[in-house]
């Protein structure tokens, strides 16, 4: 085992130097590490051993993203608590935190296993996903998770054991499971604040109990709490969260913006005390007075200093993507202008003009 101390007197090793030392040691064939960290980020991944050996990192005091993008064949064990983003984008490693995990633990996890031996913070488990070609990611928490957890979860398995959380109103925090469309979530204890438009709760089926029973020992052994098995295996205390099908989800009516502005919006608009709101909606690509820049055609015949005479090559007319350039002729003299109703201020006319007769100016309207 190689030991790395990140404090030398009053000097702290940077994250970059620590990761470079780890990478060099792995390249030499080292596979076991004890790291006395001091807030360095991204310890534990993504790495792979040149001989295919398992990589094991035992870490104290890590910074954010410990085990981020962790790969199969890597195990990260955190002695104590860990900061935010534990196991971010976990891709197959095993990450064990023998204490609390920070906000967004297991965020975007797509593989592997994450065990938390305490609580996990807000938005934990959000955006978990499952590649059907691989085993689903697993995310177990001994106690509870913070609000907004499991947002937009689309795959994987999450387990919240609720140990020591009986007085809490919700072991899943508030506004959990918003936008959840897939995966499985098991919990023990009270769970208020679950998004009713996205999910529902149900009793465990025999296959749910079989899964929890088969994985409970590994979880408790990994976090150093095997004595809790009896307390956590009364399956009558457990429930599961099921995403609603598309057919069961409440449907939103099509929004008619003009009617909404007329019937529900603040009269005169939000800023009616300082300016007038005529209700005009600016398009994604602006025209008219909403343009940031406008093309102005001026050649030497107008007396514009430094301008050449337009050669009437018609490049601007041919290449304008919005067909906004208009050519006119009077008394044998041609002129060009851009239609404000069609021009988007892209500047093509100015760019292609060989004599630089077109000029883009800031719209002062």
TrEMBL record:
Lineage: Bacteria, Bacillati, Bacillota, Negativicutes, Acetonemataceae
UniProt keyword annotation of Transcription regulation present: no
Classification via Pfam families: Fer4_7, GXGXG
Keywords of the record: Iron, Iron-sulfur, Metal-binding
MF annotations from Gene Ontology: iron-sulfur cluster binding; metal ion binding; oxidoreductase activity
Domain 4Fe-4S ferredoxin-type, chain residue ranges per copy: 301-330, 334-363
The keyword Signal belongs to this UniProt entry's keyword annotation: no
The protein, known as: Glutamate synthase alpha subunit domain protein
């Amino acid at each position: 085992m190689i030991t790395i101390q990140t404090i030398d007197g009053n000097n702290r090793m940077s994250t970059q130097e620590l990761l470079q030392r780890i990478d060099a040691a792995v390249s030499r064939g080292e596979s076991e590490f004890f790291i006395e960290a001091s807030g360095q980020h991204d310890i534990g991944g993504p790495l792979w051993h040149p001989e295919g050996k398992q990589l094991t990192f035992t870490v104290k005091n890590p910074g954010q993203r410990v085990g981020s993008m962790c790969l199969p064949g890597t195990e990260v064990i955190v002695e104590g608590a860990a900061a935010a983003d534990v196991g971010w984008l976990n891709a197959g490693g095993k990450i064990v935190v023998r204490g609390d995990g920070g906000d967004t633990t297991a965020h975007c996890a797509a593989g592997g296993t994450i065990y938390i031996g305490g609580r996990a913070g807000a938005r934990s488990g959000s955006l978990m996903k499952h590649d059907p070609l691989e085993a689903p990611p697993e995310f177990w928490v001994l106690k509870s998770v913070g609000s907004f957890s499991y947002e937009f979860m689309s795959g994987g398995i999450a387990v919240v054991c609720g140990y020591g959380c009986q007085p809490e109103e919700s072991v899943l925090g508030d506004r959990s499971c918003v936008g959840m469309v897939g995966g499985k979530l098991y919990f023990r204890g009270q769970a208020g604040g679950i998004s009713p438009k996205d999910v529902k709760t149900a009793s465990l089926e025999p296959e749910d109990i079989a899964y929890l029973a088969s994985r409970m020992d590994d979880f408790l052994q990994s976090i150093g709490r095997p004595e809790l098995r009896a307390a956590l295996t009364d399956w009558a205390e457990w429930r599961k969260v099921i995403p609603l099908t598309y057919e069961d989800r409440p449907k939103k009516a099509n929004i008619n913006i003009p009617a909404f502005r007329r019937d529900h919006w603040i009269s005169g608009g939000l800023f009616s005390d300082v300016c007038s709101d005529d209700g005009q909606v600016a398009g994604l690509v602006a025209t008219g007075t909403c343009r940031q820049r406008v093309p102005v055609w001026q050649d030497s015949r107008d007396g514009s200093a430094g301008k050449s005479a337009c050669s009437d090559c018609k490049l601007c007319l041919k290449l304008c993507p919005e067909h906004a350039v208009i050519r006119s002729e009077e008394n044998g003299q041609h002129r060009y202008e851009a239609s404000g109703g069609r021009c988007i201020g892209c500047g093509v006319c100015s760019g292609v003009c060989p004599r630089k007769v077109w000029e883009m100016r800031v719209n002062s309207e």
